[in-house]
Specification:
The chain is 37% helix and 23% strand. It is an alpha/beta fold. It folds into 2 domains: 124 residues, Urease, subunit C, domain 1, CATH 2.30.40; 277 residues, Metal-dependent hydrolases (TIM Barrel). The structure holds guanine and zinc ion.
């Protein structure tokens, strides 16, 4: 792909702003230079423009923010059509809406149609990478990766494993589930930009035998991802305690089966204790914090202070359909309020870090996505601080970058995303209102 460049306010992150004074890279009049779908350079326009070969296109995004594409580390594509379904808590919500909705994904064509809508929605919201749950059906994984690879997206996804405590129509077997997963790994993992995640749904819906085999699969394919849910809801935690009385904690169930390691993403992590957080950090597993879901389902409030004390790798996630928005900006909005309710404070710059370079780091993809380091994949977005009348008015009164990012997080949504690029190619552009 030819050389191209993009001029605007350039923002990316070298480290977590909560722990480093030199975390933020900000170029007021910046230039992003892209070649062959990768970042060639990012810096001041005045420094870089002169070195561009004559005739290199310069896309003019002055007045807009150019930053790495957003990363959603926990989302269920099959739950797109049931977002905003009312139920008094996680377990009734799963029974009433989730399982019947997921039943339809044995049909490849249905899966493909939903995957296309889901990806449109992600790109409209500026999300260029996600860690995605499919359903128990292997067809649902093929449908998803066919759709995401046709668009050239860096996506992580996997077949849900569940062989008990679920309706018959969603039940696999320990051996069958792992056999299907292995075939899908061989078909999709590192096939273009697709990456595979071994995906036991959560401890209650997997037998001992299934978790043993999942752990063995994770050891046999150490560069695959792992994703599951942990300690989301009080009733779920009680259930796990009764199913696994020998485990020290809910998280310890997964640990005993060899499911804690780098590239393992644990959704929710609401009811973990300090020993759990310490074990997360030690193992290299990461947390996907899902505030819109946790508030919607009444699951609880993530404890940023406890997680930070242990230096756990954190990321932000929508958890649609438990989550109520595809927008990572709206996810930041709710994360900020959850932190406040627990007595913590999230800087806006940190929230943008957690949704870009921080998520990439948590996934073991630092320097590959979420960054403008030379050689990183050129997934980036253009945010428009004038996207709505209110945003424009507030932006006029922002005294510094932190205030502007805060306004974008609190007031922004898909309307604030002017354009989304994947591997240097435009994959979404907002239509004029
Ligand atoms: N726990 C097990 N399955 C699910 C799911 O689909 N969504 C959420 N939020 N929690 C879960
Ligand atoms: Zn989930």
């Amino acid at each position: 792909m030819a050389l191209a460049s993009y001029r605007g306010n350039l923002l990316h992150f070298h480290a977590d702003p909560a722990f480093s004074d030199a975390a933020i890279a900000w170029h007021e009049d910046g230039l992003l230079v892209v070649e062959g779908g990768k970042v060639k350079a990012a810096g001041d326009y005045a420094t870089l423009a002169g070195a561009l070969p004559p005739g290199t296109p310069v896309h003019d995004y002055r007045g807009k923010l150019i930053m790495p594409g957003l990363i959603d580390t926990h989302v269920h594509y099959p739950q797109t059509d049931m977002i905003a379904s009312p139920a008094p808590g996680l377990l009734p919500w799963l029974e009433t809406y989730t399982f019947p909705t997921e039943r339809q994904f044995g049909d490849h064509a249905h899966g493909r149609a939903v995957a296309e809508f889901f990806l449109d929605e992600l790109l409209r919201c500026g999300t260029t990478t996600a860690m995605v749950y499919c359903t128990v059906h292997k067809e649902s994984v093929d449908a998803f990766f066919e759709a995401s690879s046709a668009r050239g997206l860096r996506m992580v996804a996997g077949k849900v494993l569940m062989d008990r405590h679920c309706p018959d129509f969603l039940c696999d077997t320990a051996e069958g589930g792992v056999r299907d997963s292995e075939a899908l790994i061989n078909k999709w993992h590192k096939n273009g930009r697709s990456l595979y995640a071994i995906t036991p749904r959560f401890a209650p819906t997997s037998s001992d035998a299934q978790l043993i085999l999942a752990g063995e699969l994770a050891a046999a394919y150490p560069d695959t991802f792992i994703q599951t849910h942990v300690s989301e809801n009080a009733d779920e935690c009680d259930w796990v305690k009764s199913l696994y009385p020998q485990a020290r904690s809910y998280l310890d169930v997964y640990d005993r089966y060899g499911l804690m390691r780098e590239r393992a993403m644990y959704g929710h992590c609401i009811w973990l204790d300090q020993a759990d957080f310490a074990r997360m950090a030690e193992s290299g597993a990461a947390a996907a914090v899902c505030p819109t879901s946790n508030l919607f389902l009444g699951s609880g409030l993530f404890d940023f202070a406890q997680a930070d004390a242990a230096r756990v790798a954190l990321s932000l996630a929508t958890d649609v359909g438990g989550g109520t928005s595809f927008s990572m900006l709206q996810t930041m909005n709710e994360a900020y309020k959850v932190a406040r309710m627990k007595g913590s404070y999230l800087q806006a710059a940190r929230m943008f870090y957690l949704a870009t370079a921080g998520a990439a780091r948590a996934m073991g993809l630092g320097g590959v996505i979420g960054s403008f380091a030379p050689g990183a994949e050129a997934d980036f977005i253009v945010l428009d601080p004038q996207a709505t009348p209110l945003l424009a008015r507030r932006a006029e009164h922002c005294a510094n970058l932190e205030e502007l990012l805060f306004a974008l997080a609190l007031l922004g949504d898909d309307r604030a995303v002017l354009a989304t690029y994947a591997a240097g190619r435009m994959v979404h552009e907002r239509r004029p209102a």
